[in-house]
Amino acid sequence: MASTSDIRNGLCINYNNDVFSVVSFQHVKPGKGNAFVRTKLKSVTSGKVLDNTFPAGHKIDVVRVERRTFQFLYKDDIGYHFMNNETYEQLALQETMLDNPQFLMEGGEVEILFHASENTPLVIDMPAAIEVQITYTEPGVKGDTATNSLKPAKIETGAEVRVPLFINEGDFIKVDTSTGAYMERVKK
C-alpha cells in the first residue's frame, strides 16, 4: 500500500474495482482545512477519464504493470492472435480490447499492457501511425483542386480512409491509428 504522497504521472492504481492510470495530479494545501490531492485518472481498460480528489495521507493500492511487445499474426473467429517477440508465446484477444482493429497489419508490432501480478492483458497500445499502401481509389479529376476535398480510398489492411485528390492507387500514405485520418504521403 502506498499513500497520496507517492502519486505521480503514469502510476497505475486500483480504484473502484478497475485499474486507472494517473494522467495528472496536484497537491493542494488550502489556507483553511486539510490538504488533498486532486487527480485526473484514466481507466486502462475502458479509457474513461474521471476527476477524483484524495485526502492527504489516503492509502492507495498501486498496481504494477508491464509493457510487452507483441507481433500481430492473424484474425479468425476466436479473435486477434498475437505472438510475444521474446518468448514466441501466442495470445488470442477479443476485438473489444482494441481501439481501431481495422488498422492492424499482419506482422505489425503492438505493445500490450499486462497486470504484472495476475499476468492478464489490460490494454493494447497501437502504434501512433502506420505506413500503408493504397489498394483502391478513384482517380482524381484534373482541375478539381480548388478546395481541400477528400476522396475515399481502401488501404491494404482493408480499412477505408479519406485522402486528398492527388493520392493514387499504389501510393504509400501515413495514417493516424487513433482517428483514421490521412497524415501525409510517404515516398518509398
Please explain how this structure is put together.
With 188 residues, the chain is mainly beta. It folds into three domains: 2-62, SH3 type barrels (Roll); 66-125, OB fold (Dihydrolipoamide Acetyltransferase, E2P), CATH 2.40.50; 129-186, Nucleic acid-binding proteins (OB fold (Dihydrolipoamide Acetyltransferase, E2P), Beta Barrel), CATH 2.40.50.140. The chain has strands spanning 2-3, 12-15, 18-28, 36-43, 49-55, 59-62, 65-75, 80-84, 90-93, 109-115, 120-125, 129-137, 150-155, 160-164, 172-176, 182-186. The strands form three sheets. The protein has a six-stranded antiparallel β-sheet with strand order 1-6-2-3-4-5, with no helix packed on it. Strands 9-8-7-10-11 form a five-stranded antiparallel β-sheet, with no helix packed on it. A five-stranded antiparallel β-sheet has the order 14-13-12-15-16, with no helix packed on it. A hairpin with a 4-residue loop joins strand 7 and strand 8. The protein is flat, with a radius of gyration of 22 Å. The N and C termini lie far apart (52 Å). The mean pLDDT is 89.
Using brief descriptors, characterize the structure shown:
single chain; 188 residues; mainly beta; SH3 type barrels; OB fold (Dihydrolipoamide Acetyltransferase, E2P); 3 domains; 6-stranded antiparallel sheet; 5-stranded antiparallel sheet; 16 strands; flat
